Structure formats: C-alpha cells, structure tokens
Amino acid sequence: MFFLLPLSCQRGSRKPRERLASGAELPATMEGLLLIAAQVMSVWFTLAFTLIVLPSVFGLSLGISEFYMRILVKTLEWATIRIQKGVKKKQAMALKNSASSGIIQRDETTMEKEIAGLRRVDFELSDVFYFSKKGIEAIVEDEVTQRFSSEELVSWNLLTRTNVNFQYISLRLTVVWVLGVVVRYCLLLPLRAALAAIGIVSMIVGTTLVGKLPNSRFKDWLSELVHLTCSRILVRALSGTITYHNKENRPQKGGICVANHTSPIDVLILTNDGCYAMVGQAHGGLMGLIQRSTVKACPHVWFDRSEMKDRHLVLKRLKEHVADQNKLPILIFPEGTCINNTSVMMFKKGSFEIGGTIYPVAIKYDPQFGDAFWNSSKYDIVSYLLRIMTSWAIVCNVWYMPPMIREEGEDAVQFANRVKSAIAHRGGLTELPWDGGLKRAKVKDTFKEEQQKNYSKMIVGNGPTGNLSMGAESD
C-alpha cells in the first residue's frame, strides 16, 4: 500500500520516521549521560570518603595535603622569580617594601615621648606643627580603617588579589595562571564543596543522634568525637594546613579561651584540635539548624536577639557555665568583629568579667596561599566562602599560651589589655588601642573629650592622662 501513495506523501512520510528515530535515541543518550554522571559522582564521593573523611575520624593524614603544599610552594616561588625578572629593579624594590611600610613611614615612639623630645620648655609655637603633622597623617592613612581591608601581599600569589597592577609578563606565567584557574575552579572547588556538604550533614545528623542519648561520660566522649571529626572534614574542605604550637597550654574544661578574630573559620581552626562551647546569637536558616542540633549534644550557649542586649543575663549564664568544671571551655573572640591579619584591636571587657582562668590563643594566617580575612562590609558570607574555597589553601599558625588569671587590684579593662598584648606579641601582630566597633560606628564623644584633655596636658607639659583605649568601657 505504501508504494501506491503519491510521491509527495512518500517523501513527507520519511520526516516523521526520522523524528521518531531521533526521539527514540534522545532518551537513550540522556540516560547514558545520567548513568555516566552517577558513576563519576559515586567514584568521587568514594575517593573523598576513603582518602579524606575516614582518616579524619582517626585524626590521620595520608600525606596528600603535604604533597600538594610542596608543589604549591615551588610554583609560587617560581612565579615570584618570574615576576621580579619581568619588572624593573626599582619597581621590584618598591614591591618588597610596599607591604610593610605603607604610604606613611611611622615611628614606634608614642606621641608623649616624641613631643617631650622635641621641645625644651613647657610650650613652644613649633608644637603646633607636630600636631598638624599627626592630623594630616591620620587623614591620609589612619591606623583604623586600613585594618578592615585585606592585607597587602609582598608578591602576587597567582590569585585575583595583588598589590601591583599585573599585566602581561611572560607566556609561561600566563599559562601557569590559566592552569591554576582550571585547577581551582574545576577540580578543587567541586571537591571542597562535596567535603563541606559531607561535614555539615555529618555535624547535623551526628549531633542530633548523640543528643538523644542520656547524659553520661560516653555521651560526652561521643559528642567530642563527632565535633572533632566534622571539624577536621571542614578544615580539609579548605585545604587547611595548620601548625599548633605549645599544645601543653591547650584550654582546659571550666576555662575561657580568647583569641584574635580574623575570619569565621577561626572556629574551625581551633575546633580542629579540640572541643569548645560556643557563645553567640541564635540564628535562623542553615546556621540555626546547625546551632539547634549541636546544642543537643554539647552545652553551647546561644542567646536570642533580645537576650544579647541584656548584659547581666549574658554574664550570669556564662558564669554558670564556667563554674562547672566538667563543661568544655568557652570560646570567645573579644574583638567582636573581624580584623585583617595584621593587627589586634581592643578587647571588650565583658569577656574578662566572667571570672575563671583565661587561656589566650594567637592565630596568624599566611596570606601567600589565600586571604582568610572576611570584609563583611564588602562581601556577604556566600561570596566570602566562594573566595576562600577557590584559593590555593588556608595556612596558619596557632599558638597556645600559658593560662592567665586576673591579678589583685586589676580591673577588667586592664586585664583585657594585658591579654591582648600577650596575644599580639606571640602572633607577631600590631597592637592597637582602637575599638573594632569603629568599623560600623562613629567615635564616642566621651573619647574625644578624653583625648582633648590628653593633648592639653601634653601641650602644657603636665604629662599624659594615661594610655587610653577607645571605647574601653564598652562591654
């Protein structure tokens, strides 16, 4: 019957058959692609679990991170040499000095000692020039606002950030940079995202199950195991390489651990080596889910927004926690905000009014491998996590320091300043008296008045009122 149809009908009939054939092949092709993708994901998660997750349970390392870091260090050293060869000698010298000197060369001497050495009598008209000079320096490059921007690098680390305008230097360097982009975004980012998902899900599920057990030593041991394992997985998701110094000084139960604050991942850096009770405001969303699950297994201290404003309630709950010698040490960041990896700013006194033993910890990141500082005014948390998960690695040093207690006759502000000085000295950080709250708030009028009194006493020669700290009386 087909041959009796007109020729036009015969030609038209081929198209539906072709469409039918191609339509039959399309689902088969999609099914094959989905099968291949499933197999790739299966192999991917199997390798991640075998090589990373399982060793994390026992706190072991297979040497993969060490091998990766050796290759990375050699690559960055080679890139630095190529960059130095590609620029003029004068520019290379400026490059070496730019990260440490800044725009203005400042002396370490205090204003009181400087002005005392400049004049010979109680007051001279030339003293006006000294204060004018200091005022201009503060306007051009003050000590506060530059602490809320990323730390400048001595040399380009083949990432997006650098302190020089990198253009074309050589074909080899450009090829290495392109390969680095491919490795970071196509290999490292998917692996790190998978590890982060495994760590977060394990934290939620593990702490929820542990929370259902009755209170006992076994529950405490199992809770610490879950927290340590999940923290180690999350650190590996950042390709973290952490060196812990003086482990004999690690915080003990019933104490308070205080540390300088650079990034939200400071918590992971510390919990990778020990368990702590966290203190903070209760959140919603994914963070709230994690908080509600972890508090079932560990005595974390989470406050509602209204409770955070009640200073006496916060101190009461923290004192009750510290009074129990069987509870984990509290982890607190007294600066209250993230400061870039160069300085330590004012410690708020509230953390030092609780009582108990203070265990200071200094954290210092290596900016050569990635910028760990979170500039919350510029990047939201998602953009920040994407930045650090596409960097080469997170490398840092952690120093556990001998415990400190409040001395007789020492108030909370003096104790906070003493601990802050010890952390700054141990971490090789610049110690600043300014309040980190200036990141979002204006200078208090009371501080302006105190500084005016201080300057007036320096001018008339009666000596300074003392080393003032901006906002030192804040909580």
Quick tags:
475 residues; 7-stranded mixed sheet; disordered N terminus
Share of residues in helices: 40-55%
Please give the largest β-sheet: 7 strands, mixed
**Global morphology:** globular
Helix/strand-derived category reads alpha/beta
Beta-strand percentage?
Answer: 5-15%
Mean pLDDT: 77
* Spatial strand arrangement across the major sheet: 1-8-7-2-5-3-4
What does this entry show, briefly?
α1 packs across α6 (171-211).
Structure description:
There is one protein chain. The chain has 475 residues and is an alpha/beta fold. 52% of the residues lie in helices and 8% in strands. The chain has 14 helices and 9 strands. The strands form 2 sheets. It has a 7-stranded mixed sheet with strand order 1-8-7-2-5-3-4. Strands 6-9 form a two-stranded parallel sheet. Strand 3, helix 9 and strand 4 form a beta-alpha-beta unit. Helix 1 crosses helix 6 (171-211) and helix 6 packs antiparallel against helix 7 (217-236). The radius of gyration is 29 Å and the shape is globular.
